[in-house]
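Tutorial sheet, problem 5. The four components below are modelled jointly, 540 residues in total.
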Amino acid sequence: MIDTMAKNEQNNQKSSTVAVDTLTAPDFGAPAFSPLYQQIKTLMLQSLQAGEWKPGEAIPSEMDLATRFRVSQGTMRKAIDELSADNLLVRRQGKGTFVATHAESHVQYRFLKLVPDAGDQNTEGPADRRIVACKKIRATAEIAKLLNLRTGDPVLQAQRILSFAGVPTILEDIWLPGIPFKGLTAERLAQYHGPMYALFETEFDVRMVRAVEKIRAVPSDEEQSLLLHIEQKTPLLCVERIAFTYKDIPMELRKGYYLTDTHHYRNELS
Amino acid sequence: MIDTMAKNEQNNQKSSTVAVDTLTAPDFGAPAFSPLYQQIKTLMLQSLQAGEWKPGEAIPSEMDLATRFRVSQGTMRKAIDELSADNLLVRRQGKGTFVATHAESHVQYRFLKLVPDAGDQNTEGPADRRIVACKKIRATAEIAKLLNLRTGDPVLQAQRILSFAGVPTILEDIWLPGIPFKGLTAERLAQYHGPMYALFETEFDVRMVRAVEKIRAVPSDEEQSLLLHIEQKTPLLCVERIAFTYKDIPMELRKGYYLTDTHHYRNELS
DNA sequence: CAGTGGTCTAGACCACTGG
DNA sequence: CAGTGGTCTAGACCACTGC
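Model answer (structure tokens):
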């Protein structure tokens, strides 16, 4: 019993916190209490961002990480739990914990919420992607603002069409910041088969982690009508997306125009 | 040390599981291992559904519940954590854990994702709700299917318009199963100021917990154009929602038509 | 079989709330 | 101040995976 008590007194919350406090920013005046697992989570995020573990790879075991950060398995676990809840990590019992990736994702399109009206989306083959255009431009004021750039900064603009069962259904305009995506060409985009975000991961070390979408109903203009083979002023679902990497840095602006006569945008609320 | 070992052997996972296994359904052939905290979660759900604690009320403390279910605080905590993650409970440090409600919700409209284009939605006053119609009908095949009823079952149909800053922006058709909402009238709907789901909670003991939405772009028809003061065939965001109570029972079908020239549907992906 | 994540416990102490 | 949720630990054992 005495032995047990001694242990508890040594390994209580305060002493453990001190052990890691040296790793956190000094708190000038602000108390800003931050639990241990939060600090660990931040450190893990930095490792992810720095590319210490690549998408799809396994990270060290809970015990190894707990030892590395000098915390208990429980605390390490809580940190991983949160990263897992944020879809940055994926746990697999008996195998390990892996860095989330857009490649081998169970659902091919993690961010595409358009599904066929007929329930079974498994009957639907993979989308046919066709690159229409891809060129280097300079950021307009609007694009610069949304991508956190300056007006005139280099930007890569692409346009593509996705068809389901041969029917053109989605028209997308995509803007990418020029620096991180230096070297991306229409050819590279066209020849790649698979989710675009998977290509971003492997070729440019850019991992899309989160996105915000603004959805509106708009009438199709002339260009859209031509490309999608529809009458002018057909109502389209306009989906404006900004996708972020780690640290909430915007890395893509995408304006999608969805034909919703055989498909719909599915959303869950809770 | 011997004392400690003895305790651990008594209070290990297996013996604790047995203590609660009597509360679970017998597992015919299927191993179907279910962790303790999951079983507790199920029991909590039943209490919530039975109305043992009303929306807005505090539930017993973690320790009390842990005692009641004969589990450790840690396990009880994990059960509550999950219910909290599902938005069924709300934890407030130092005060207690409360049953989630649509009334005193920090965000007035938990399920309404339409926000003004100009960032600051605080500048926008509360929506003006106007009931256009409310009558008892019999379920069509389509409505019956979506609400899990039989064709011809009694259904309450309502129509209303929401205006922001005096501008009619949302037109909604709502269908409710007749039995649980027996006694709901146009007058009651019209005189109530506040979220409709809050009224459902207090007057009919129906708590909306989850919803699925199908979103499309459609041209406005004649009726919609008149009610929203717009040209015919103006593109509208068609939002078809099915809202569920506990146990995934559908309790509302709602078809909303949103004008998206000054507002947009905001969605977060991760 | 060893290694990984997943569950459970007991106990201590911290942070926040309100009387 | 007592009561609540929140954090942390140490240690045990279970379930799953793959060699």
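Marking note: The CA atoms of residues 120 and 242 of chain A lie 29 Å apart. Full credit if you identified this.
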